[in-house]
Design goal:
Blueprint: H1 16-22, H2 25-28, H3 32-48, H4 54-72, H5 85-97, H6 110-146, E1 151-156, E2 159-165, H7 166-191, E3 193-194, H8 210-216, E4 221-222, H9 226-231, H10 234-260, E5 268-270, H11 288-311, H12 326-347, E6 350-352, H13 354-360, H14 368-383, H15 393-396, H16 399-403, H17 415-432, H18 441-447, H19 461-467, H20 476-489
Parallel strand pairs: 3-4
Antiparallel strand pairs: 1-2, 5-6
Helix pairs in contact: 3-4, 3-6, 3-8, 4-5, 6-7, 6-12, 7-10, 10-11, 10-12, 11-12, 14-17
Bound molecules: arginine (ARG).
Arginine binds near residues 84, 110 and 318.
Enzyme class: lyase
GO molecular function, one term: argininosuccinate lyase activity
Pfam families: ASL_C2 (PF14698), Lyase_1 (PF00206)
Amino acid sequence: KENKLWGGRFEQTVTDKVEKFTESISFDKELYKHDIMGSKAHASMLAKQGLMSESDKDSILKGLDEIQRKIEAGEFEWREDREDVHMNIEATLTEMIGEPAKKLHTARSRNDQVLTDFKLWCRDAIDRIAASIKNLQVALVKLALNNEGLIVPGYTHLQRAQPVLLPHLLLAYVEQLERDAGRLLDCKLRMNFCPLGACALAGTGLPIDRFMTSEALGFTAPMRNSIDAVSDRDFIMEFLSANSITAIHLSRLGEEWVLWASEEFGFLTPSDSVSTGSSIMPQKKNPDPMELVRGKSARVIGDLVTLLTLCKGLPLAYNRDLQEDKEPVFDSVKTVVGMLEVSAEFAQNITFNQERIQKSLPAGHLDATTLADYLVNKAREEMWRGEGEGLPREKYVDNSYSRGGIRRDKSGLPFRTAHEIVGTCVHLCVSRNLRLEDLTLDDLKRINPAFQQDVYEYLGVENAVNKFCSYGSTGSACVANQLDYWVAKLEIS
Ligand code: ARG
């Protein structure tokens, strides 16, 4: 058996069981590129500080480059008895270049080394996820552009609520994803401080330059406190929290599309290329990718919970438990990227069933709220008729002006009253199995005399949807503005 790097103090070698149980090379080799990056920066700093010669540094850098080449060519031998990625690379470097390699671990511990590697890895991972988020946003915006003007029922409590434009609904997901990306970038900013040089926990008595390595590795600054530097795992708790939120958003999208693909809804059809069949039921075509998007959100949450639980009882500083921090992070990143990519692919391969959606729209009195708004607006017009007419809008809604002389002969209509009136209209429709637009003006006037002929400009989903005109609402002008915003922001051509 090869002597361990710490062999000096030991009389016995470790048992096979313990070696197998404690190794991390089977998963932390994922960090190899960042480990080499960190070691190169560290060696350069040691040389500049006179802790190793220029020629030692040069052979270390050359050796590390060769190791990277070998790893990427599949020629590198990863050894379990060398425990982890750090010791595998260092031991191989020693075999390759001899004495100079032994200087590389000057003023460094695996405790600061592993975190340096991990932070560099997470930084890259965040960029990968952010790119996948953008890719999905683009797919959703394109889907919205292809379905401009398509009205769908909007739901609350999964009951029909108000008509909305499909692009409006799709852009709601785009907004959520934008915040997801923002959370990741925030997390990256907070994460980007360099632990290297904190050594085991207390720093070092050797004259190193932590600012130099920090800068060389693209960190904002070295971490201020060496104990914090080797104990900090909140950077990955924050990262996996952000991933969990993204996963939940995707899960909700998945649920919505699975529902919409059902016979009962029938609002969308995935193409065969993103569907799977059944081994027993010949007729089946299932939206599995989005079901699995929903399902895999569970493991992303699980990864976060693993990490939180792992850390909750640990005193400062490093504890070997912390070796368990890597797999959940790797898994979370891989899973979220997969979820984002497959959601984008699904979005590119579905069609919305206009006819079916159209047929479904009359049900559920989606225009009822618009009708209540109609009554409030009517009363508002009455309230300002006469003296107010011809004045600029700002004037007649300005209280100080109205105190100064405008006489209000009507007091307007409380929304609660309008709600009650429309409720009565809906009640009548339900009992006669009619839509609101089927009621005659006489029917309506009998319920309330304020209804006029122009009420029919408010009824029916097409009319109703376009009455929504406040900032951010679902009317076509507002949605067109939103679409313009995203097309420009995401540089969609
Ligand atoms: N493989 C270890 C980990 O991932 C590296 C740090 C080991 N440090 C130690 N003192 N045993 O945590």
